[in-house]
Amino acid sequence: MLDSGLVGTMRSEFWLQGTSSRRFQLRSNITGPFADDYLRREQIPLNALTWSSCLSNRAVNVRTSVSITGANSHNRKQGLMTVDSLDGELRQIYGLHWRRCP
After folding, report:
1. Does the pTM of the predicted model rise above 0.85?
2. Do the bridges between strand 7-16 and strand 24-31 make them parallel or antiparallel, or are there none, so unpaired?
3. How many CB atoms within 10 Å of residue 61?
4. CA-CA distance, 52 to 60, in Å (whole number)?
5. C-alpha distances out from residue 52 to 40, 45, 77, Å
6. Which residues pair with 34 in a beta bridge?
């Protein structure tokens, strides 16, 4: 729920363990008024992929966050945004690209 004049921002960062300088970030906004569920679907472009070396095991790190801007102590606007589900149907599905080591 976002009152008029508020902007909800969803961010996701993806990176391989040990390669924090090569993070890929996605960001999208929802502008109020908004009072509904939302679904976010992301696809990382192939040219942004980082490959791990053939001789190492690396974890894939994902950081997801939401924030709301536009409210202050004078305008009394209200907003609520979450990265979960009230009906218990939270699903996160990740696809990975594999390539054979030489």
Report:
1. no
2. antiparallel
3. 14
4. 10
5. 27, 17, 45
6. 2
Task: Quote the tokens at residue 48.
Answer: 């942004």
Output the six-digit token pair for 29: 């906004």
C-alpha closest to that of 1 among 90, 97, 86, 74: 86
Please report the beta strands in 6-102, taking only residues with DSSP state E, as ranges in sequence order: 7-16, 24-31, 60-69
Query: Distance between CA atoms of 28 and 81, rounded to whole angstroms?
Result: 13
**How do residues 55-77 score in pLDDT, each as one tens digit?**
888 888 888 889 999 877 777 88
Token pair 């305008």 is found at 75
Contact indicator for 48, 30 with CB cutoff of 8 Å:
no
